[in-house]
Amino acid sequence: MFSINDFIPSTYLNSIETGQFQWSAPSNIALVKYWGKKGQQIPANPSVSFTLNNCKTITKLAFAKKDISTALNVTDSGFSFDLLFEGKPKEDFKPKIQKFFERIEVYLPFLKEYHFTIDTQNTFPHSSGIASSASGMAALAMNLMSLEKALRPEMTEDYFYQKASFLARLGSGSACRSVKGEVVVWGHQANITGSTDLYGVEYPHVIHDNFKDFQDTILLVDKGEKQVSSTLGHDLMHGHPFAEQRFAQAHENLDKLKVIFENGNVDEFIKVVESEALTLHAMMMTSMPYFILMKPNTLQIINAIWKFRSETQIPVCFTLDAGSNVHVLYPYAVKEKVLQFIQDELVGYCQNGQYICDQIGIGAMLL
Ligand code: PMV
Fold first, then answer.
1. Which one-letter DSSP state was computed for residue 73?
2. Rounded Cα gap, residues 304 and 327, in angstroms
3. Which of 126, 221, 312, 349 is most buried, judged by most C-beta within 10 A?
């Protein structure tokens, strides 16, 4: 297990003038939710997620060593980068990257020596309400680690991925779960070996075949801007009347999931996952100020899933992230039946009938 100090490099022996890398990183969907944080993206409770496969960000990072005397685009603090989204300059993403660079500079001391061109795109539709911060920050972190590896080729693969997750976490908490592995735990949990608040780790214990190839069909209920950002939502857990019980419950649910992952009990899995989703939204509704991110159609879908499940005994359930879209989770074995149900009964609740079929994936990839 690495500590923070392991991520602060000493001098680099290699040097490199120019080059580029390209990585894709997926989105992920939490089963036990992260909601509430301390300090620099230290989670108030541990979380676990399925890594997705199709919803991803693809980011190309080109870099060129700055000629200090003629450097253009040098911002006040000395970082120099251009940001392109789908090939076009995107000024409004820049402050987030600037802040990310400021946070990670101590861990990547070469950042100010280069001019970067960050060229990024998502595989999912623009403003679909699917958060791109997890996949986006993970893809950028992978590219930066590729550059660090070029400067320090002796680094181990383990170090490469764990530091990538550590950096991604500093960009956006849940991004640390989008780096490597099908099921990823982030946050210290006593009986999960190697789990830490600093980065996500591939779930290290037995996972029953029932959970391999799990499907996630994302129903796009409302594609508008969220009214309350997750940054603000996390903040409202400070002084929240139910915070301590909630954080304790997340630990308990992760313990329950550990047993469920091993014995393959899908009915128990459903109870934990749906309860986590509703608890997340219950925290929002009981914050001060309180807010609701679900929409009427979110509830219509939840009720339709419950009715379908009780009538057919097909093990399909839902989860939610910090928005109104519904993630429909189910084993591969029932895919045809569930997709038929979605077509017949749920598409009408989706904005413009849109949904995205995804499934468990393995993490970031060098392209
Ligand atoms: O990583 P953030 O700060 O966008 O927070 C994500 C929070 C949830 O998606 C609601 C839960 C989670 O664990 O992903």
1. S
2. 13
3. 221
Distance CA 276, CA 246 (A): 10
Domains and CATH numbers, the chain: 4-205 (3.30.230.10), 215-359 (3.30.70.890)
- Which atom in ligand 1 lies closest to the alpha carbon of residue 34? 13
User: Among 156, 129, 6, 146, which residue's Cα sits nearest to residue 63?
Assistant: 146
State the average pLDDT for the chain.
Answer: 94
Dump pLDDT digits (tens) for 245-269: 999 999 999 999 999 999 999 999 9
Chain centroid to CA 87: how far?
23
User: Where does the pLDDT of residue 75 fall: very low under 50, low under 70, confident under 90, or very high at 90 and above?
Assistant: very low
* pLDDT per residue as tens digits for the range 12-69: 989 999 999 999 999 999 999 999 999 999 999 999 999 999 999 999 999 999 976 5
How far is ligand 1, taken at its centre, from the CA of residue 307, in Å? 28
Q: What is the distance in A from the centroid of ligand 1 to the CA of 148?
A: 27
Please state whether the peptide bond connecting residue 241 to the residue before it is cis, i.e. omega within 30 degrees of 0: no
User: Do strands 80-85 and 114-122 pair parallel, antiparallel, or not at all (unpaired)?
Assistant: parallel
> Cα separation of 217 and 196, whole Å?
30
- For residue 13, the CA-to-ligand 1 centroid distance in Å is 38
The pick from 51, 174, 253, 326 for probing ligand 1's pocket by mutation, whose C-beta has the most ligand atoms within 8 angstroms, reads: 174
Calculate ∠ Cα 236-55-322, nearest 5°. 15
Atom of ligand 1 nearest to the CA of 175: 1
Neighbour count for residue 351 (Cβ, 10 Å): 18
Per-residue DSSP letter, 129: S
Indicate the top mutation candidate among 27, 28, 29, 34 to test ligand 1's pocket, ranked by most ligand atoms within 8 A of CB.
34
pLDDT tens track for 192-251:
999 999 999 999 999 999 999 999 999 999 877 777 888 999 999 999 999 999 999 999
Pocket of ligand 1 (CB under 6 A): 30, 33-35, 47, 131, 133, 172-174, 230, 234, 280, 321-322
